[in-house]
Write a structure and sequence with these properties.
The chain is mostly helical. It has 6 helices and no strands. Helix content is about 80%, strand content about 0%. Helix 2 packs antiparallel against helix 5 and helix 3 runs antiparallel to helix 6.
């Protein structure tokens, strides 16, 4: 389940990296942007998990329901989301890119505590997966069509929706 979650949360970064890879960023920017995305994909689920622990302690709602709703919303948002064009000219642009593609990881982190007993390893997996898929997207973005970027985003959204459906019956 964590493998699919990590791949799904990384699809946003991958799809945008495909688009920005078409701008033919130099190798240094590709690596730096990938590292930034990986760091954000570590930080955001951790913060979400911390908030999730507080929420679940004070709300008399089943964690299964909240996790299902969050994953469903994130998945639908990934499918319907229309990204605005951003340029990556400096470190600020890279930080904004990293934040933008990792917001969904915050929401997923809220329910992550209830998906796994290995929170740190799960968040680390999400981070590494996001780093790798961002880098791969930037490299392949030089060679493949911009349309594939949207398709990968749709696939990530569908996987999250499937996870939410599976999780509600868990």
């Amino acid at each position: 389940m964590i493998i699919l979650l990590g791949l799904s949360l990384s699809m946003d970064a991958f799809s945008l990296a495909l688009i920005y890879g078409m701008n033919k960023l130099d190798k240094k920017r590709e690596i730096l942007l990938s590292i930034i995305v990986g760091i954000f994909h570590f930080t955001m689920p951790y913060l979400g998990s911390s908030l999730g622990n507080v929420i679940f302690n004070y709300l008399p709602v089943s964690p299964n329901i909240i996790v299902t709703i969050l994953f469903m919303i994130i998945g639908i948002e990934m499918i319907l989301d229309k990204k605005e064009e951003l340029s990556i000219n400096n470190i600020i642009d890279m930080l904004l890119f990293g934040l933008a593609v990792s917001i969904d990881s915050f929401g997923a982190g809220i329910g992550l505590t209830y998906l796994t007993n290995h929170l740190f390893l799960s968040i680390l997996y999400i981070s590494i997966t996001s780093f790798l898929l961002t880098y791969i997207g930037l490299v392949f973005g030089k060679y493949i069509s911009i349309k594939l970027g949207k398709v990968s985003n749709i696939i990530g959204g569908i996987v999250l929706i499937m996870l939410s459906i599976i999780y509600i019956f868990k």
